[in-house]
Amino acid sequence: MAESHKIHEGYSSKKPVPKVALKSILDPSGATEAKAKHIFKDRKHEDDDGQDEIASNAKDMVKGKEVRVTDPVTGEETTIKHGGDGDSDSNKGENILSIDYPPPDWDAHRAVVVDFTKSSIVKITLAYIGSAVIFHLVASLPLPSPFTPPLSERYPQIVSQAWLLASLITPSVLAYVLLFALRNKSQEDFENRVWDSERTRGLRAGNDLDGDGDIGVDERIQESAEWLNSVISGVWSIINTDLFNSSIDLLEDVMQASIPKFVHSVRIADLGQGSTPLRVTSIRSLPDSKLDDALAGADESVKEHLEREHVNVEVSFSYRARPSGSTAGSKAHNAHLLIDFYLGMKGVWEFSVPVWVELTGVAGTARARLELIPDPPFIKTTLCTFMGLPRISISVVPMSRALPNVMNLPVISTFIAKSIDAAFAEYVAPKSLSLDLQQLICGDDIKKDTEAIGVIVIHIIRAFGIKKMDSTQSSGAESADPYVTVAYTRQAKPLYSTRIIFNDLNPVFEETTAITLDANAIKVREKLSLQLWDSDRTSADDMMGFVEIDVLDLMRNKNEPTRRITPLSSPDSDGRPGSLEYTVGFYEKMAPNEKLSTDGLDPAIPEDLKQHDPDFREARAVALNDLEAAVLVTPPDPQWPSGILSVQVHEIRDLKVATQGREKSVIRSSRSEGEKGQDEGGEEQEEGEHLPSSYCTIAINDNLIYSTRVKPITASPTFNAGTERFIRDWRSTHVSVVVRDSRMRENDPILGIIFLKLSDILVNASEVTRFFPLEHGIGYGSARVSVLFRPVRASLPLNLLGFDSGMLRVRKVEVDGGEEHISQLRKCKVSLSTSSDSDAFSKKDARDGSDGIEWVEEQPLELEVHERYSKALTIVFKSTGLVSEKKAIAVLWLQDVVDNEEKVVDVPLWKTDDYDRLKQNYVPLDGKLDMWENGKENMTRIGTLHLDLTFSPGINNAHGNAHDSAKKRVQDEVDRREAAGLGDKVGEHAGEDGIAAREDNTEVSKEDTEIEEVEEHSSPGTYSDQSSPESGGENEGEGKGLLGKIRKKKRHATELNRQHKGVMQIKPARTAEWLKDNVEEAGHKVKDRFKMQARQPDVETEV
């Protein structure tokens, strides 16, 4: 199915950015073909058939070539020409008034007149005959008369003639009326048929050139529309250029993705439409293709699209610049772009090369399908497509004095032209652009619903019966290092990955994830792929097999999970033994609960001001249907805490870096008497070298998930970017939008943070759009951010509603069991470890407990936790001495712990020779090893371990230093938030008293497992921050002696450095820190290169 894009839809992993090859810029002879190959380039993992299709499409995109495509507007096969000549005869246009009327249907007109005449003659004849008979009978009757003798006897001839005359009056009147009606009927039918000929001429809008009795699309007249050009000419110069922001963003994305390495950034600094308007050279209406042919074999979405009430039109347009001089100033009355290229070494050295791009000519043809609705503005969705690449010509003038003032700089002009072609190619038939005109005219840019229609919850239980893949493993035993990834088959991008279980052919994972599902996946018949991989340290991981799940089958059985055992399919021709056991289900979005509806106003505004002062009344978002209206006045239901969260960053206003004191020149730095201490906010500038190059990152529960592109050197960046994610519990979730400044030779500083606790802002509505101030950074400004939450009908158990990261606090460890084992364990050191941290109880802390022996310290042991739902707390009892020996082990999987719940958890205590297998494979709290295929016989349970612990969600200052850049950025934001006193809000549960989430509906018992047969396939398819209640105030532990003073001074210096004060206010100090961090990060990357890692999903980016 052909792709259809939306006007505000940015590029993403689902819609990759088209790129322009450097070869096409340097080699003009092969430019268009090389560009076309990049436009149609698909993912590198596509099969051979897909590559053949790419090659064929690339050849079709060559300018001047005619291609046969399916028109998404009319649904017919048509011929388009890329970069066609805009001055051809077909674009000159005609006038329908010059065409003769088609001959009226005179036979039908004659039949109408003859039929009416015949009926009139019959009526007149019957009237005369009937009237004569009636009057004759009346005259023959013996009627009483006042005269004696009667008049009939006195004057018989006169009376007889009087009766005869009377009998003729009535039928004569009737005859006159019928003849008058016949004349009017004949004239009316004649005029109707003439006007019907005029209507037919308009509807046909062309001549039957081929004589087949039907006016095809190519035979329709392209009518001139000078009235429309007059309107365009009047409004062209006053159009708000903000309307073109979305198009400029797309062009920036294409250029940014295509620039060579020595150009590390590009920015469209200015857009001007000039005073020379675009002209419509011709316009015509279009018929639909025959519906029977168009709907044959089409999917449901296409059928629904073609069967709606609509109007099809085709518009040919052209633009030609007025003559101008060689300077940029003389070209201002023509449409133009001002583009800044930033050259140099990224992050080290750069300089700007501004160029003036004048649009000298455009010629093209577009078709539009206007979907009609009964309510104003009577047009809903408009589907637009270009009939071939428009013919575009530009001229480039350098704005830098260091460059020669020549026209059309060879490389730059070619690069810009190719980028414009690549952007236009995304909307050339059979691709299209969808415009919601009802939303554009009557609505706003605020999302009231998510793109996702629901979520798919997958619980990966285990794999069994697999075989070793890597023949180069040093271990002689038949083993593998398996892990499972979740992806859509066509995208092939991993959306989730389990942990790696080393040296095991029957791994037990017990991991749960949820991925969003949008309507596009249904349209292209996506399948969900669970892929089992064998991790390798030095080479590419091997796929051990995969399982494909039809998304449509899941939707037909929505809100009901199924537990399955599916044999693995092979990615190649070789057989793949083994099966995968999992639970999967699709859960739909829920409508807002009408019982919770409110007035939708901001609860932070006092009621007296809200009602009586119009300045405090918020501008209400426009709702176009009942669902949107309900979202704007109904908060989320606490009984359904899980759902889809959408976060959008629209724009930032008045963004600047704060200065301490007045901005001074290095040469003239003296202070004068009476001088003000700081500059006032007087003149506001949107552009300038001193302004930041900002970008935004979005984190949910301190888990970095999204990053926008950089907007170079502007105080009013427009992003219109965002993401949608599944969240487990909106009542405790927080969102952090961090605005950073992309800088050269230093770490990108935080300009400001927007901290949003969903339970605080989603009080009266499920959607909030507001300007939030940037706080706790080195800059200031306000950002417009939208937050939307839609619940899904999935009720997860309490232990799965928590954060991914946090702090585990263990207060006490107690063991009960046999006396023999108790006596051995009394002499042991108790080591507690997660994948991120470790600590221990000394054997000196052991003491007798109520049922056994316990270890307690004055302060609880604190352990960092990351990726909590795939990690375990391992408690190992080791003997002390020269040779340490493991006496027992207990494993608590952290997915079984509920957030912020102080509880004693009972964990089985084991003695075994295979401690590695016990640490990696899931063991439930009851100690039953039913899911284990092998190795159960080597496990001996010797007692029970009682852990008094609490999992505090979120990252705080107690977490150690991060090594990779993503975690460093999160830690930087957390430190600033802690300093601002926002740590107490993180992880805080805001559910209403007496209202609890519904019981779990996402798990299936083992008895209900569906065992599937082998199927043949052709191809393989959140950190947060909470202050410790035990940590006390910020100065606790610093002491009052010399050491305390040193700590206090160090903390104060850290705060100054964070605000770019103290030593960090000078550039060399920040550059030195940047060098140190880059060296450390490079060292950790080298170290991690030799570790086995799963195929984890990356942070989503705008480009």
Structure annotation, total helices: 22
Class by alpha and beta content: alpha+beta
Number of strands: 38
Helix content: 10-25%
Q: What is the terminal-to-terminal distance?
A: 24 Å
Strand content: 25-35%
Outline: elongated
Q: Report Rg.
A: 40 Å
Topology:
Blueprint (H helix, E strand, L loop, with lengths): L3 E3 L15 H5 L4 H9 L8 H13 L5 E5 L6 E5 L24 H35 L10 H4 L1 H49 L21 H11 L8 H14 L4 E10 L6 E8 L4 H5 L4 H8 L2 E11 L15 E10 L3 E24 L6 E8 L4 E8 L11 H16 L6 E5 H6 L9 E13 L17 E7 L7 E2 L10 E11 H5 L3 E8 L7 E9 H6 L5 E6 L11 E10 L18 H6 L13 H6 L11 E15 L36 E7 L2 E5 L10 E10 L6 E8 L8 E8 H4 L5 E7 L5 E13 L14 E12 L1 H7 L2 E6 L4 E4 L4 E3 L4 E13 L6 E8 L6 E8 L9 E9 L3 H6 L19 E14 L11 H15 L29 E3 L30 H17 L8 H23 L10 E2 L2
Parallel strand pairs: 1-11, 18-37, 22-38
Antiparallel strand pairs: 2-3, 4-7, 5-6, 6-8, 7-8, 8-9, 8-10, 9-11, 12-15, 12-19, 13-14, 13-16, 16-17, 18-19, 20-23, 20-27, 21-22, 21-24, 24-25, 26-27, 28-32, 28-36, 29-30, 29-33, 31-32, 33-34, 35-36
Helix pairs in contact: 2-3, 4-6, 8-11
